[in-house]
Design brief:
727 residues; mainly beta; Methylamine Dehydrogenase, Chain H; 1 helix; globular
Length: 727
């Protein structure tokens, strides 16, 4: 799944920031820690939407299972409630990188013990990884910071597991890293040291250890960086050797996953020519008779090297029936990925997709705008229930499917929400309380917050990642959206976002760089800004006929986000983050001129918001320099001293007796970045989340509900849409 990366964004140097702010007045008052207020937090239900990278059943406890995701944390299955319980919502702003889970390990001898290897990116701008240790199935944690980086959202994130409890000693753990070889802990993950005798040489750019698996008392390790061998083993925990006779060639270049049939004493290994989930075109499945050392090629189907190309991903064995094994293809787009199942040790196979009946009524977006749902893609997570051989679950790029009869399949996703959300809009009237836009899954229209939208993704056209969403303030039935799509990147709605029509045309740059979009107060004018994926800004374009024709606006700051005045249709605003200058248009977006300057510059996390029902009332939230307000349309700004930093800001219904809308922000009044609410025009703030509800990086967007006081919607980068209400 694509995810935004706060670590990539430029940080304004402190001295430069102070210089840029010289002469900006401040409101009375000083920043202080916000008082807390009890809130109940829940997910707006979409259902999955992200890449499930790993899933496993505990071998000794019926109904106990865990799942990991690339950017959205880890989950425990609550068998009684039939839903997933998030385990890492306590991860705070500064530790956002730990919401990507590289690997999961359980202790077969101690069912309450759980270990997670966390770290989303292995790049220089990301923090180091960490191992989280729990003695109560993830209810509470102890943490060990590592000196190496992990990469839960990088290539190879569906391989594994890379973390293992040693089969001879529950106090010993093994951790395979991408760039720093194999690590070992002798104290249940409290401390870690490199394994000096591991034969393979670590690379700064490669995959490193792709999997760790126990076969009896022997530990096997897969290696993804090439060389003469890619599968190693140790029988004594000290001496490692390459496994003799292992397969070679492009179809067996990277060992992806492995599973051990303890009854038959056979180790199954899936291979591909690349780590995946993208980029695989060849693959194979092999099994090793661990006692005698004989290898067998048991590949169910071969890629044809032309139209039907794929690798192999997941593998799982039946814990009670020797020779029963399931494997998955991966990156098979022409024929669509499938699961193959064998009951005779891989001599014969049948494709479970061929007889599958899919029921996606609980998560209709899986129809992708009216198409038949797909059996899956990016299938690398796969598990067979050790207590029920016909209970199989597998992850895809958007959900987790399950069956109990090998024929009927449905999402098993309740409670697991992984969307990376970019846009939130809460209409002041109409059937929906929330319209949202996310990466990968486009726009959703929520009439009920507790159910996945019945119409699924906004269609006509279906779009991928959403880049813009706006509503005409004085004509709320009119909504526009922008995003990446196969059949046009923009659309409009005349019924509040329930149904859509594509723009009749779009500017030439729209196909390569769709960015944020705005509509003026009466919906008569559109302004569409364009930003290439590498951050390059392009001139904005204007339409006065709902997207039938467009004209370039040369005076608009390239790549800026257009903001419409909610009361005056002639007014638009844009903030140029490169120069720290507010631009305004008084002629319906035809031309823009500079107004206030000397504001914070150089950070893409700045956000300009117009207060509802007012003309010229602008709020500018800035990552490192707090919050600013203008009441004259951007001619001058005043610094709001009640908060130290402001990452994103929005408005909701005013409190009873208050004369100004409630303000919500992700920011800080002291040392802690939190979700805050002000009922008195930003004079004071109340913290409305708590230490158990932080969700890592939440700096994209926040908005209140204009019809329900106290209700707030918060976009997360991997934990979907959170909504909170006072208790």
């Amino acid at each position: 799944m694509y995810a935004s990366s706060p670590g990539r964004r430029a940080v304004l140097a402190g001295a430069a920031a102070l210089a840029a702010l010289a002469g900006v007045p401040a409101l009375a008052g000083t920043a202080r820690a916000a008082r807390p207020s009890p809130y109940r937090w829940r997910n707006v239900v979409i259902g999955g939407t992200g890449f499930i990278t790993g899933v496993l059943f505990h071998p000794a406890v019926r109904g106990l299972a865990y799942a990991r995701t690339d950017i959205g944390g880890a989950y425990r299955w609550d068998d009684r409630a039939g839903r997933w319980i998030p385990l890492l919502d306590h991860i705070g702003w500064d530790d956002w990188n730990l919401l990507g889970v590289e690997a999961v390990a359980v202790d077969p001898a101690h069912p309450d013990r759980l270990y997670l290897a966390c770290g989303t990116y292995a790049q220089s701008w990301a923090g180091n990884g960490a191992v989280l240790r729990s003695d109560d199935r993830g209810r509470t944690w102890r943490r060990t910071d590592l000196t190496v980086k992990l990469g839960a959202n990088e290539d190879g994130r569906g391989t594994g597991e890379r973390l293992l409890v040693d089969p001879r000693d529950s106090d010993t753990l093994w951790l395979g890293t991408r760039h720093d070889g194999l690590l070992r802990s002798a104290d249940r993950g409290a401390t870690w040291a490199p394994v000096s005798g591991f034969p393979a040489t670590a690379s700064a750019t490669g995959q490193g250890v792709t999997l760790l698996v126990a076969a009896g008392r022997t530990v096997y390790a897969g290696w993804g960086d090439g060389g003469d061998a890619n599968l190693f083993r140790t029988a004594d925990g000290t001496t490692w050797e390459a496994v003799p006779g292992q397969p070679s060639g492009a179809a067996a270049r990277v060992p992806v996953r492995a599973a051990y049939d303890r009854h038959a004493r056979e180790l199954y290994v899936t291979y591909a020519d690349a780590p995946g989930p993208n980029g695989q075109s060849d693959g194979s499945v092999h099994k090793l008779r661990t006692g005698g050392g004989e290898w067998s090629d048991v590949t169910p189907a071969r890629p044809d090297g032309a139209a039907d190309t794929f690798g192999y991903g997941g593998v799982a064995v039946d814990a009670r029936r020797p020779g029963t094994v399931v494997v998955s293809t991966n990156n098979r787009w022409a024929a669509v990925d499938t699961l193959y199942r064998s009951t005779d040790g891989g001599r014969t196979w049948r494709s479970l997709k061929d007889t599958a009946v899919l029921d996606v009524s609980e998560t209709p977006y899986l129809k992708w705008g009216g198409e038949e749902p797909k059996f899956g893609w990016w299938i690398q997570a796969l598990a067979v229930d050790p207590y029920d051989c016909e209970h199989i679950v597998y992850g895809t790029g958007a959900t987790l499917y399950g069956t109990r009869d090998l024929r009927h399949w449905a999402p098993r996703i309740r409670g697991l929400e992984e969307a990376s959300v970019t846009q939130l809009l809460s209409p002041p009237a109409g059937r929906a309380h929330l319209i949202s836009g996310s990466r990968d899954i486009g726009v959703m229209y929520h009439e009920r917050l507790t159910a996945s939208p019945a119409d699924g993704m906004a269609a006509n056209p279906v779009s991928g990642s959403a880049t813009g969403l706006a509503q005409a303030a004085r004509r709320p039935a009119y909504v526009v959206r922008a995003g990446w799509g196969d059949h046009g990147n923009g659309a409009y709605s005349h019924d509040g976002g329930r149904t859509w029509a594509p723009f009749a045309s779009q500017p030439p740059v729209a196909g390569d760089a769709p960015g944020p979009i705005a509509t003026n107060a009466d919906g008569s004018v559109l302004l569409w800004s364009f930003v290439h994926w590498d951050g390059t800004g392009h001139p904005a374009h204007r339409s006065a006929d709902s997207g039938t024709t467009w004209s370039e606006v040369p005076s608009f700051p390239k790549g800026a986000t257009p903001v419409a005045d909610p009361a005056d249709p002639a007014l638009f605003y844009a903030y140029d983050t490169d120069t720290g200058t507010l631009f305004a248009s008084t002629d319906g977006g035809r031309t823009f001129t500079a107004r206030a300057g000397g504001l914070p510059a150089g950070d893409a996390q700045f956000k300009l918001v117009a207060a509802p029902h007012r003309t010229g009332d602008l709020w500018l939230s800035t990552k490192g320099n707090g919050l600013y307000r203008s009441t004259d349309g951007g001619v001058a700004f005043t610094r709001v001293d009640s908060c130290r930093a402001s990452h994103t800001l929005g408005f909701g219904r005013a409190a009873d007796g208050a004369g100004y809308p409630a303000i919500y922000q992700v920011g800080s009044t002291g040392a802690v970045t939190a979700v805050l609410r002000s009922d008195d025009e930003a004079r004071t703030w109340t913290r409305i989340n708590d230490d158990d509800h932080q969700w890592g990086w939440t700096g994209e967007t926040v908005t209140g509900d204009p019809r329900v006081y106290g209700r707030v919607y918060l976009a997360t980068n991997g934990r979907g849409i959170q909504y909170g209400e006072p208790v």
